[in-house]
Amino acid sequence: MMTRMRLLATMLAMALASHTAAADAKGGVQQIAVAAPPRTILFLGNSFTQGAHSAVRNWHAHRVTDLNREGYGGVPALFKEFADESGLNYAVSLETQGGQSLTFHYDQRRQLFDRPWDAVVLQEYSTLDRDRPGDPAAYIRAVGLLGTFFRARNPAVRVHLTATWSRADLTYLTAGRWYGRPIAAMADDLRRAADHLPPVAEAAEGDTTYFTVVDADGNCVSGIQSLNSGFGSGVMAGDTGVLLNNRMAYWHLAKGHANRLQPGKRVRHTMNAAMVFKDGKLWASLGTPGADNQVQVNAQVLTAMIDLGADPQTAVESPRWTSSQAGQGANWPHEGDGKLTIEADFGDATLADLAGRGHAINKVAHLAGPCAMQTIRVLDNGLRMVGSDPRRDGWAGAY
């Protein structure tokens, strides 16, 4: 056991970086501003997103990140300007190619934007399909693929769709797809195509929520709740409006299994809302959603804070890993991929060493690992330091 803990501490120490911590304080206790990371916004499109053949194409290109390194600003730079004027902390990027469709970006460019994003704006070819104007088939397929791609890296990503303005040349030229029809007909067709898209734009997968609060008097709540699925068991507690969870799905049915469904037994579950005490006083409170990953990530964050002396935000943002055993997943039918999911920040040498020891490696990008850790650390002088996981949509606040 000690050997494993030393290995855990060593792995965490290899990529530990310094970050700004925040405090939760009230009345006489020092208050430190929370430095929230910027929301990451990606624009994906063609010459319309670039602002091609206009003064805006290269306008303020230094304020956005052109993933193709072509020096374009375009619509994303305008968006960045409006966001800054509104006091919004957005980091804006673009990946564009004139005359190309979303299928092109997915098939040939997705390695450039393979990372978690908070929001993505997708702009399709102006007529949906170059060879078959107005045909939505390729559009529907591409948005479905991209939506799945982005949500695999951040389940909370917001995917927005935008279309170009109606093109007059396609209504007055005899070869135009909308020849002889009102100018609004093209926009109407594009709108109808979007209505047939898979529901990725506003889809949100919700399950477990964790929160923790420490007030000025030192009272602490480390709270976690979960229905375990959309409407839990589907059973309401009387007329209260409170739905009961369906954690009974955690039972195993295999004979001889330690968690087999039997009379008089309590089902094992993964809820781990933790508090840490030192000399009888609250030292830290922490927790995260994440099923079987909860205890693994709790242990890693605590190791970083206790053994390595990391502040909460550094501990939360440090690279992490989780191990899944085949056939031992929390929910019935208890699947598990048997892989070690590990963030790339540990480095290729470490990953190669782990693979050499027999681990099936599932490498994920920076801050693309599981869970959404939140923690509060109470210092000896009463100061509260907090950490909130940028991997999901959590936040930290002081009052």
**Largest sheet features:** 5 strands, parallel
Q: CATH topology of the largest domain, which one?
A: Glutamine Phosphoribosylpyrophosphate, subunit 1, domain 1
Spans of at least 5 consecutive residues whose pLDDT stays below 50 are 1-35, 200-205
How many individual β-strands? 14
CATH architecture of the largest domain: 4-Layer Sandwich
The number of distinct helices, counting runs of at least 4 residues, comes to 10
Q: State the name of the first-level CATH class of the largest domain.
A: Alpha Beta
The share of residues in extended strands comes to: 15-25%
Structural class: alpha/beta
The ordered string of helix (H) and strand (E) elements is HEHEHEHEHEHHEEEEHHEEHEEE
First-last Cα distance? 41 Å
The CATH homologous superfamily of the largest domain is termed Gamma-glutamyltranspeptidase, small (S) subunit
Our Rg estimate from Cα atoms comes to 25 Å
Shape: globular
